Amino acid sequence: MHFQWYPGHMTKARRMMQENIKLIDLIIELVDARVPLSSRNPDIDELGRNKARLILLNKADLAEDARNDEWVDFFKKKGYSAVKVNSKKGGGIKSIQSVIQEACREKTERDRKKGILNRPVRAMVAGIPNVGKSTFINALAGKACAKTGNKPGVTKGKQWIRLNKNVELLDTPGILWPKFEDQEVGLKLAFIGSIKDEILQTEELAAELVKFLNSNYPGVLEEKYDIPSVEDAYGCLRNIAESRHCLVRGSELDTEKAASILLDDFRAGKLGRITLERPEEK
């Protein structure tokens, strides 16, 4: 499978971010805790040079907790502020305001020396599609001020959100980068739903997920779907189809539907807490 998805609105969104970067004190970059490195857009690093940086491992409840801690340490060693959060359920959100102030302490100190007092921190919220930016902003603001959706591409334009007198947020659309140098990165982004499912081959994608799970989390699929253990990934999809009564034309197994069920269950955390990449691999 070849992975690439870079619709026209992403070029426009990147340009908009470039135009606004001069107004920004801090970039809050959301990554998916299951794939913290693969879900980082290298363009954001380039845009954010000389800006304070905060990395949020969002959807931390879907990844292994010990791995989350390893990734937080990994990013802190690189010089970033890093926090694990679960925007949907509010986990870790209360600490964010103080983390933002801490990340911008040098800027606030510089302002103070120039006689500029009480100017709010302006933070750009950035990340790839479907990583949970709008859900994070809503959780932080305590109200539904940014559109949310469980598919990539919901936020189309920019919007400023004033949290309080100390912090203003700029919400930006999710952007990928024009070309994945490593197709393994594309595969992981497809697993978590950051690439439009309509352009993917569902069965092939699910078969790759089966291979990963059998190798790294043996027994998870057998327990979840009450199926026998098989080496063959497509055999496993057939077993899931049989277990979940996915049939076409009366009795033929619908492995396409079984593949969709598996991907949906993984993305929703119904297979348990799973991390797809680890710091020691990087």
UniProtKB/TrEMBL annotation:
What keyword terms does UniProt attach to this protein? Cytoplasm, GTP-binding, Nucleotide-binding
For GTP, which residues are the binding ones? N58, K59, A60, D61, N86, S87, N130, V131, G132, K133, S134, T135, G174
Residues of the CP-type G domain: 10-178
- SUPFAM superfamilies, sorted: P-loop containing nucleoside triphosphate hydrolases
Checking InterPro entries in the record gives: G_CP_dom, GTP-bd, GTP-bd_ortho_bundle_sf, GTP-bd_ribosome_bgen, GTPase_MTG1, P-loop_NTPase
Subcellular location(s) per record: Cytoplasm
Q: Where does it mainly reside?
A: cytoplasm
| GO terms classed as biological process | translation
One GO MF term, please?
A: GTPase activity
Domain of life here?
Bacteria
* Cellular-component GO terms for this entry: cytoplasm
Q: What does this protein do?
A: Required for a late step of 50S ribosomal subunit assembly. Has GTPase activity.
Q: Which family does it belong to?
A: Belongs to the TRAFAC class YlqF/YawG GTPase family. MTG1 subfamily.
Q: What is this protein called?
A: Ribosome biogenesis GTPase A
Q: Gene name on record?
A: ylqF
